[in-house]
Predict the structure.
Amino acid sequence: MRRSRAYYPYRGVRTIKIKKHLLSAAGFLLLIIGAIGLFVPILPTTPFILVASACFTGNPRIRSWLLKNRFFQEHLTNYQQRTGLKKSTIALSLSFLWVTLSASALVVGKLWLALLLGSIGAAVTIHILCVSRPKKIPRGDLKQKP
């Protein structure tokens, strides 16, 4: 027997709360993965932080904390304003990448794995250098200053 919608008066409110909690949980999981990506050179940080930020749109308090956080603020503002990365951030990222990849290749000691790590490192380096440049914003998108 199917019950009418009037039987479940708070169903919409409950669904919205569940969705908000699930999105917040997913956002925190993605934030943790992004934080791990700050220290693991092959795991990207920015995509996880951006998706986590999107998950927190229903929770303005957490989203504002994320935008003010010193670890994630640069990733989010650079993406939103298309300013690119600072040269010090690029140098630190590439240095950390190559030091850890080189150490991994030396510890393992297999030529094929060292070549694989080198090719992964080259691809990640190209990616970082391409993403780090500021993007040109079309003239129509620029806001007029009064």
The mean pLDDT is 79. The helical segments are 11-37, 46-55, 60-68, 73-81, 87-108, 111-131.
